[in-house]
Each structure stands twice: as C-alpha cells, then as structure tokens.
Write a structure and sequence with these properties.
Length: 343
C-alpha cells in the first residue's frame, strides 16, 4: 500500500505541475501577442474567410476560447498527442529524435556531478586549514563564479583545437558508435559538471565539517579508525542531507545549463529546439518542451526525496525538511549530535 500511495503521490505531483506550467505558457503566449496565437500562425494580410485561413483555424481550433483550447490540449496530451508545430510538422516528430540526446546528457552530468562533488567535498573537509584544502576551495569558487557558457570556450580551445583529442561539436548516437558517443559527450558533460561541481562540493564540505565536531566522530577517531573510513562510513550519510536538498533545488539550473551547452556544442538535443520555439512563439512546441522539462524536474526531485528518506528514515514521505523533528530546515537533524551524559 505504501508503494501505491507513493506512485499516486508522484502522479498527482507530476500532473499538477505539468498543468500549471503549461497553463502559464498558454496564457503568456495569448496575452503577449495582439490577437494571441492566431497572429503567429495566420499569415499577414490573409483573409480569415479564405480556404487556407479556415484550414489553419480548424487545425489549431482558433475559433474557440482559450480555456477550451487548453482543455483540448490537455486531453490530447493524455492521449499521447502533442499537437502540430507552426512549422507544419507534428510536435512529436520534432522532439522524438532529440529527446534521447538531452536525457543522456542531463543524466550523465547529474551522475558525474555527484560522483565528483561528494569525494572532493569530503577531501576539502579533511584538508580544512591546509594548503590543499585552500586549493580545492579556490576551484569550487571558480566553478560557482564562471558562467556556464564560458567554460566550453576554454575546453574547446584546449582539447579540440590545441590537443586535438576531442571533437569541438557534433553528436554521435550511442546506437551508431559507443566510443564516438563518449567522445562527443565528454566535453559538454565536463562543462556542465564543472558548473555544478562547486555548490555540491561546498555543501558536502560545510556539512562534513559540522558533523566532524560531533562526539561520536571524536570517539570513532579515538578508536583508531582511519580518516577515510570515518569520512565515508560515519560522516557522509548525515552530511548528505543538505546536499540532497540543494540538488533538488538546483535541478532547474542544471536543465537550463544543459540546454545552453547543447547549443554551444551543437549536439542536436532539445536546447536548439527550445531557442527556436521561443523565438517563433511556437505554442504547441513550447507546451511539449515545457512538459519535458517539468517531467524531468519532478522525476529527479522524487529520486532526491527517496534518497533523503533513505539517508534519514525519520523524514516522512512528502514532508518538508522543517517537519523533521529537530531539523534545521535543510533536512538535517540536530539529534545527530551525541548528548553528554548528565551523570
């Protein structure tokens, strides 16, 4: 039953978020353009009574009120139909070949950020006050301060133009060549990982330093346990709650950064499609892309929520971090700290 409740909660959250975001896009297009979306699809000077105009009006249901058209789109979405682009093509045909590219890029970048950020944050905590720790802090600061579109320029100049090790742009599908796919993926993924690395590592470092002051950590060190064992077995789990919360909040930034980098590296994902749809005010393509972004956001946030409950079982499903007894608002419990005996 708990699994069924979790699935229902996920579906309710996804449906509500998609509906709200799509409605905002629909209304924004209608109120930001004189005569609304009809101005985009009806050529200038065309007679509304001509056969061509009637065909366009019937295709996009422009003779119906906005709420009815939005309701039609929702019903079509539930049936798996995404509508037609202003290019005259079905939206699904535009998105389908690009969607796997963007999903692979985002998931690899998220995984790479976590796999690099956690050990580097723990090392920065272990080396706190040393020169090596200072160097790591400088790297984290550069990661947070350099815009996401600047790092690719440096990476392309070094690895594509000077060393000629990796391609500067383009994409090879994994079904065509696994080595070729990895070569095309490495530079954009490295650029996005570097952009997100600083915040992940700094959160881990700050929380690890706080946990290291706990009495049970002092006891573990006193037993002769090695530093790395203490960090990974006793510090990482309580220190990861703040990180998981930040990752959940930072997913939208990661998705937007991924779309920017797709354009810079020309890898043929959804980034260029988002840019063109926004410029051309392609309503139904924008609605489909909004659905994609919202779905990825909700799925990744649900994974983060599950990971937080695994790290601290006291966090109830759907509860906020502030609802945890003794929590500090970032998913951590003050009860991690051992209390001195009153005897």
């Amino acid at each position: 039953m708990s699994a069924l409740r979790g699935v229902l909660r996920f579906v309710r959250r996804l449906a509500g978020t998609v509906a709200g975001a799509a409605l905002a896009v629909f209304v924004a297009i209608e109120i930001s353009i004189p005569r609304g979306f009809a101005t985009v699809v009806l050529p200038g000077g065309i007679d509304d009574g001509s056969p061509r105009a009637k065909s366009i009006i019937d295709t996009y249901h422009l003779d119906e009120p906005v709420p009815v058209r939005f309701g039609r789109w929702v019903l079509d979405l539930l049936a798996g139909e995404l509508g037609r682009s202003t290019r005259g093509m079905p939206v699904a045909d535009l998105i389908q070949p690009r969607l796997p590219i963007s999903l692979q890029f985002v998931l690899v970048s998220v995984l790479g950020t976590i796999l690099l950020g956690i050990p580097l944050g723990l090392l920065a905590a272990a080396w706190s006050g040393r020169r090596r720790g200072t160097v790591l802090n400088v790297v984290f600061g550069l990661s947070q301060s350099i815009p996401v579109f600047i790092t690719p320029v440096f990476l392309i100049w070094v690895f594509a133009l000077q060393l000629r090790l990796l391609p500067a742009a383009g994409w090879t599908r994994i079904s065509d060549s696994v080595p070729g796919n990895l070569r095309n993926l490495l530079l954009p993924a490295a650029a996005l990982v570097f952009a997100e690395l600083g915040i992940v590592a700094r959160i881990i470092r700050a929380d690890a330093l706080r946990v290291l002051q706990s009495d049970y950590i002092v006891a573990a060190v006193g037993k002769g346990l090695g530093p790395w064992y203490v960090l990974t077995r006793h510090v990482l789990r309580p220190a990861s709650l703040g990180l998981l919360n930040v990752v959940g909040l930072n997913i939208v930034s990661l998705l937007s950064g991924a779309m920017v980098l797709e354009i810079v590296f020309g890898i043929g994902g959804l980034g260029q499609l988002v840019f063109e749809a926004a410029i051309n005010r392609d309503l139904y393509l924008l609605l489909a892309l909004t659905t994609y972004v919202v779905t990825v956001y909700v799925v990744l946030n649900s994974i983060v929520d599950a990971a937080m409950r695994f790290a601290d079982p006291r966090i109830a499903p759907g509860a906020s971090a502030r609802a945890v007894p003794g929590g500090d608002g970032r998913g951590r419990s003050r009860r991690w700290r051992s209390r001195p005996s009153r005897a």
